[in-house]
Design a protein that fits this description.
alpha+beta; 2 helices; 63% helix; rod-shaped; cell cycle; Partitioning defective 3 B; repeat; PAR3
């Protein structure tokens, strides 16, 4: 049996054997899995931003305003994804 626990837009699936898992244990496992997921996402975002920074160094000056607009929009979307549930 599996239970899906939602943290905002993020859904975490927790296996609970034959329903023998207590609610407290289920909550703890769901939270641990959620925090691991956020940590992995943050590392991916950091790597992506380093790549973007490298690309910006070779970007023609006249394109920078468009690039900054896209980055600001991306940052806003990412912030909404990483927002605390509640």
């Amino acid at each position: 049996m599996k239970v899906t626990v939602c943290f905002g837009r993020t859904s975490i699936v927790v296996p609970c054997k034959e329903g023998q898992l207590h609610v407290r244990e289920l909550t703890q496992q769901a939270l641990q899995r959620y925090l691991k997921t956020r940590e992995k996402d943050a590392l991916k975002l950091e790597m992506l931003l380093k790549d973007v920074e490298h690309e910006l160094m070779s970007c023609p000056l006249e394109m920078l305003s468009h690039v900054y607009f896209l980055l600001a929009r991306f940052a806003l979307d990412t912030h909404q994804c990483f927002r605390e549930p509640g």
